[in-house]
Structure formats: structure tokens, C-alpha cells
Design a protein that fits this description.
Blueprint (H helix, E strand, L loop, with lengths): L2 H9 L4 H17 L6 H7 L3 H10 L8 H6 L4
């Protein structure tokens, strides 16, 4: 059995909260090794990011901060 096959088999035995940490570790390894990673993969590697994005999409525009207010806090 190769190391890759062993890793995949072991992943199937882990509880979900540990799998989340493994995914985060894999994303970090890809980043630190400068391997390609899609924006979606990167965002999904951040804990709770999916929920944050869904919450933002469900927020009415009238409740959002204006772009000019956002830019006031950005330093170039």
C-alpha cells in the first residue's frame, strides 16, 4: 500500500472535526509549497467561511456598509 493509499484509508476512519483540521493542514502545505489552489479551495479551508459567505449573501444591501466607508479603513 502506498503512502497516498494509506492516508486515504486512514482519513475514512477519522471524525469530521479532525477531517476539517486535515483539510486546513493540506491547504497550508499547498500554500507554503506554492502549489496551485483555487479561490474556492482556499476559502473553504478557512473555518466557518462558508457560513460567513452565505450570511453575507443573505444580508439585504440596505444593511450593508457602503464601499466608501469600507475604503476609509483601508491604507495603501
Amino acid at each position: 500500500m502506498s503512502a497516498r493509499e494509506y492516508m486515504k484509508a486512514q482519513a475514512d476512519t477519522l471524525p469530521e472535526q479532525i477531517i476539517d483540521k486535515v483539510i486546513e493542514f493540506i491547504s497550508f502545505q499547498k500554500f507554503s509549497s506554492d502549489l496551485p489552489c483555487s479561490d474556492q479551495d482556499y476559502l473553504e479551508s478557512i473555518p466557518a467561511m462558508n457560513e460567513i459567505i452565505k450570511e453575507g449573501l443573505a444580508t439585504p444591501l440596505s444593511e450593508c456598509i457602503s464601499l466608501s466607508d469600507v475604503r476609509k479603513g483601508v491604507r495603501c
